[in-house]
Amino acid sequence: MIREQNLFFEITTNHTSYWFHILPSGHPEHLYYGPRIEAGADAERALADRPVYLGGNGISYSKEYPLVGLEELCLEFSALGHGDVRDPFVTVLYPNGSPVSDFLYEGYQIRDGKSGMQTLPSAYAEEDHQDNRGNAPDCVQELTLTFRDRNYGTVLELIYAAFPDCDVITRRSVLRNEGSRAAEVQRLMSLQLDLADSEYDWHTFTGAWAREFNHQTDRLHQGRFVSESRCGLSSSMNNPFVMLTRPNTTETAGLCYGFNLIYSGSHQEEAEVNAYGKTRILTGIQPDGFSWKLEPGEELEAPEAVMTVTDGGFGALSRSMHRFVRHHIVRGAWKDRERPVLLNSWEAVYFDFNEEKLLEMAKTAADTGIELFVLDDGWFGRRNDARSSLGDWYVNREKLPGGLGELAEKIHSLGMQFGIWVEPEMICVRSHLYEEHPDWAVAVPGTIHSEGRNQRILDLTRQDVRDYIVQAMSDVFSSARISYVKWDNNRIFTDLFSAAGTRPGEFLHRYCLGYYEVMDRLVHAFPDILFEGCASGGNRFDLGVLCYMPQIWASDDTDAVCRAMIQTGMSYGYPMSVISAHVSASPNHQTGRYTPWATRFGVACFGMLGYELNLASLSEEEKQMVQRQIAFYKEHRKTFLSGDYYRLVSGREDDFEKGIWQWMCVAEDQSEAIGFFLQRQFVPNMSAAFFRTQGLDEHALYRFRDFQVGSGLGNEEDFTLSGSLLDHAGVRLTQAYAGEGRKPGTRYFSDAASRLYVIEKAE
């Protein structure tokens, strides 16, 4: 709900409140964002800044408003100049050479529903949408505030949308040039949140290829704390999802803010504590190097930002974000459909395959219950290694004499769907496409070019390049019965240049807009294809991608222990239903680690399950085990896909435990839950362990038992217990092996050992 009274604005969701008002000077002062509160008669006055002087060397905004000191105010947005020396929300370089703006309030509009964006993906609410519990749709409302620069013909719009059932508010901005001369936009952020104090921890998710989403925490103090990408993608180095919490926040209690950005390009998230102990949060397009020429009559949209807050700790915040992503980001035919269990050919055969080898794997896959066979890299051009052929999207007939169509029909005859891998945004110098169109590649003429994985980037700022990609992919997708497409991108941006004359400061953002145009055209042309995003694993894992592709390959690291860390990090801001996870070979191809089957399967269950190894090479006993694993996953797939997710323990390390993860997913109707317990390293003479649940129906009885397909052991746990006992006391697990002999009934928990637990309401 959004209300206005005497320029006091209140945005309310089911459990949160967001307040601000317009000062007599025309500036929007932020008053409150947090758990829901009710406004009394004096609420606005009690929360507003009430200066009787400006201290020290404070700057007065104007003679008309001498007590307005912008540096000390909490604002909804800020511009460069007039006393606020914090990083600004918007910076415009005007024709007279001045970067100082003075945007003042002009008006507002409240509307039911949510407006779309012209060129960027956006959160949305379907009019006929109901969630899986049959509830009515989010009654989304939108507030637009208009501010006009008093000196130039520039208009800034701040646009807020409230999603009550998800406890999410989105923010975006639009800058419009209503003057007579061009201006240069040097910064336009999506969200600014100014808070009155600085007693917070700043949480970011950092990493690199094969080790994405490391959860990092910094205690705020005076200064700037920045999480950012400069590489043209949302990046594996710093994800756009960040959190701000009170220092004592836990999984189950404490004030916690979450922020994300519906954008796939270079971005920046910043927490700045000023000299007066106030905290400013900014999120949006990476401003470093950004420069956008705004001609008269033109406007620039910033990506939409997402924010939520709770006093229920990390877990409650995650579940709000999960609901929002499932209901308002993921869309299309696959939004709520169960995703198929797949077999991907990459780690099984890499580039070394022919049709006979693929069909041998496919036949075994079908016997085990696999539903989708995916042919990864190496099927096109002269692609026998990573040095050639990107851009040449025609079938390698030496490997596949009958083409994709014939192979797809043979896969379908086995009872499976067929999928394909592509990397359309890239080009190799050793390709027919490069010979014909060298100017389509992003490279600075007359200089050496730094390449990644022997490839260059196609210039998606060009319409002819975008048209080529759409046509080439349409030809591929139409050439066979293709049900799934894995869309990869294996390098970042460095040496930027467009032969078409795209301005350097606009290149990365225009590229991102071009990527969205290509995806929008293809997903509408092929609405029944399940698209999966990938960029060297998690190098482009963001809400922008998820508006077009319902799931993303989380990491090229398929090691189960590494994936436990990676997927835990992802779970803070993203639901299990968008995380693609595979069971791979042991020893693992990235780490060389030997990991039990049960652990590889258990970790992959908490995501969209796939297999990435040569099933045909397994023993008969192993094939039967995989068959039982897949049957288990299918039985509980809905709970994994749409259940409420809980991080019970996240990699705990102390004198007694060396890397403990405990997760669970609870069905929306609380009829069942699946728990998981992973131990990274065995600790001698430490036999005791508990599994404490969350989110069960405390008044119901549940059967708690372990599922051990892959361990070779019998059942250890089988109890009928109340939900309240499971949630508050937990189950004392069977005594673990501790060096005294492996006796009957012992819980044998070696390095990287794990258990799955099925928790079902008793009849």
Question: Mind explaining what this structure looks like?
Answer:
With 763 residues, the protein is an alpha+beta fold. It folds into three domains: 328 residues, Beta-galactosidase, Chain A, domain 5 (Distorted Sandwich), CATH 2.70.98.60; 212 residues, TIM Barrel (Alpha-Beta Barrel), CATH 3.20.20; 117 residues, Golgi alpha-mannosidase II (Immunoglobulin-like, Sandwich). 19% of the residues lie in helices and 30% in strands. The strands form seven sheets. Strands 6, 7, 8, 9, 11, 12, 14, 15, 19 and 20 form a ten-stranded antiparallel sheet that branches. An eight-stranded parallel beta barrel has the order 21-22-23-26-27-28-29-30, surrounded by five helices. Strands 5, 10, 13, 16, 17 and 18 form a six-stranded antiparallel sheet that branches. β7 and β8 form a beta hairpin. α7 packs parallel to α8 and α10 packs parallel to α11. The longest helix is centred in the last third of the chain and has 23 residues. The protein is globular. The chain starts with a strand and ends with a strand. About 1% of the residues have low confidence.
